[in-house]
Design brief:
Number of domains: 2
Largest sheet: 5 strands, parallel
Distance between the termini: 112 Å
Radius of gyration: 33 Å
Oligomer: single chain
């Protein structure tokens, strides 16, 4: 709801509430009503959230309609924090507050002592300020060193001394993050990392809706929506989170990684820096390269050498894609080309952005992160290439290598050089077109298609490749045996006669 005009004092606000132009409601009601309006209008609820339309979003909508505090359970890189921050769009554009109040007091019903005293003194002439929705979201990353004073508040002796007040006075309070989120949304990331006594401090706000500061009889009936995130294993582990706190959280919602390659590609296209800034050459990422980048994460999530409990973040393909584009950019700049089209070979160059994105089990540690990363890339290429090449006739290209042909392609080889070498291989250009590269494709895109076909055949074990990217037959060409070869082979099969037993063979 936008701010109504002509409201500058408490008196103006009181009249606006009376005639219905300014609604009075708590945060849960506000979010619920705005959510209902969006659902009826068919508006997008959480822009930028991909792949959750049929799973997470319906559960979250149910929690919000139920006015629940909730927790998102999921592994790293599953957009939990992004989903929490998207809740801001369900708040009103602006709400009236007491000017200068640390806890965003309602001008018609303030809860802190200073605002109550100010309203009693000035009455309806008390000025009113307006607070935007972005300032009503408070987020805290839980760490073991967080104190109850950070979360709830504490006595400020300096404030007491300067004001000449007793320490027991409510006016000496220094408010923590939770009271400062009053009339807004308070989110805690990685909830199980909070110390047990801090978790106990959240009981009242979740059940009774208030907090108490120190041992003094100060009760603040806060109006806050609480949202949390956690790793499922930590959340269910005994001792990580106390049971009474779990019992007070209304809804438990499980997040997940993208279910298919399409959703994953949409997320990476949205998040990765691929368009660049226009200073370098124009960049382009063919679909098959984008699929290979996404498939790496899918392969890693099912690889036994990688820790399943830690997960493989969606940040892996995002970072890898940025490195892939950069490597294509580097090659294009070295060869003074105007267009940088990514190739599958660039994915191997993106290895530094991949190896740090997963935790390995013992077997993986023995092999080493770089070796595991290369094997993941090869498996990803094989999976994607199988979908493009399995229905095509590849025999002509494979036979060219089987007959002794070889092809050397370098990491920085220009488009012209790649295509010149590719035309030496019978049927290779035609196979690239059959795999999806249009007939009218630009030369850089065709070179990328050739690279994809070669890497795909290598990953599918149809041809061989050296570490220096020299493509060749999987084995040495088989020569038809001659009569002399056959005679020599027969001689080898005749058993030798022991010296002392010749008479038995006569």
């Amino acid at each position: 709801m936008p701010r109504p005009t002509g409201i500058s004092t408490v008196g103006d606000l009181r009249r606006a509430v009376a005639d219905g132009s300014v609604p009075r409601r708590d945060v849960h009601q506000e979010v619920r009503e705005n959510l209902i309006r969006k659902l009826r209008a068919g508006e997008p609820l959480f822009p930028g959230i991909v792949g959750y339309d049929d799973t997470v979003v319906p559960q979250l909508v149910n929690a919000l309609l139920s006015q629940h505090n909730f927790i998102l359970l999921g592994l790293r890189g599953q957009a939990k924090t992004r989903l929490l921050r998207a809740l801001v769009t369900l708040l009103d554009e602006e709400i009236p507050v007491m000017p200068g109040c640390e806890i965003n007091d309602d001008p018609l019903d303030p809860i802190c002592g200073a605002c109550r005293a100010r309203l009693a003194a000035d009455g309806d002439t008390t000025p009113v300020a307006w607070l935007g929705r972005d300032l009503r979201y408070v987020e805290k990353l839980a760490t073991p060193d967080v104190t109850i004073a950070d979360m709830v508040g504490d006595i400020d002796p300096i404030k007491a001394a300067r004001s000449g007040l007793q320490l027991s006075s409510e006016l000496t309070m220094h408010y923590g993050l939770l009271p400062r989120a009053n009339r807004g949304i308070f989110a805690i990331n990685e909830l199980p990392d909070l110390a047990g006594k801090i978790q106990v401090g959240l009981f009242n706000i979740l059940q009774e809706g208030d907090v108490q500061i120190k041992g003094y009889p100060v009760r603040l009936p806060l109006d806050v929506m609480m949202a949390f995130t956690a790793n499922p294993e930590d959340y269910t582990a005994r001792g990580k989170i106390i049971t009474p706190l779990k019992d007070r959280i209304g809804s438990e919602i499980r997040t997940h990684y993208p279910a298919g390659r399409g959703d994953a590609m949409a997320i990476t296209a949205q998040e990765a820096w691929m368009a660049r800034d226009g200073v370098g050459p124009r960049t382009e990422v063919p679909t098959f390269v984008a699929e290979v980048v996404e498939e790496i994460a899918f392969q890693a999530r099912q690889d036994r050498r990688i820790d399943k409990r830690s997960g493989v973040s969606q940040r892996l393909p995002i970072s890898a894609m940025e490195n892939v584009v950069s490597n294509a950019e580097r090659r294009s700049l070295m060869n003074r080309e105007d267009c940088a089209v990514a190739r599958v070979n660039d994915v191997y160059a993106a290895l530094p952005s991949i190896t740090g994105k997963f935790e390995m089990e013992y077997e993986g540690e023995l092999k080493g992160a770089e070796t595991v990363g290369r094997e993941l890339i090869k498996a990803a290429v094989a999976n994607v290439a199988d979908g493009y090449l399995s229905h095509l006739e590849t025999r002509q290209v494979i036979e060219w290598f089987d007959l002794g042909g070889s092809l050397q392609l370098g990491d920085t080889m220009s488009t012209k050089e790649v295509l010149t070498h590719a035309r030496e291989v019978q049927g290779l250009i035609e196979l690239a077109h059959a795999a999806g590269v249009p007939k009218e494709a630009t030369a850089p895109l065709l070179a990328s298609g050739v690279d994809f076909v070669l890497e795909g055949l290598y990953a599918l074990k149809k041809i061989g490749r050296s570490d220096e990217r020299g493509y060749h037959a999987t084995e040495s060409p088989v020569r038809r045996p001659s009569r002399e070869d056959k005679f020599r082979d027969e001689e080898r099969t005749i058993p030798s006669i022991p010296q002392g037993k010749k008479k038995y063979y006569n």
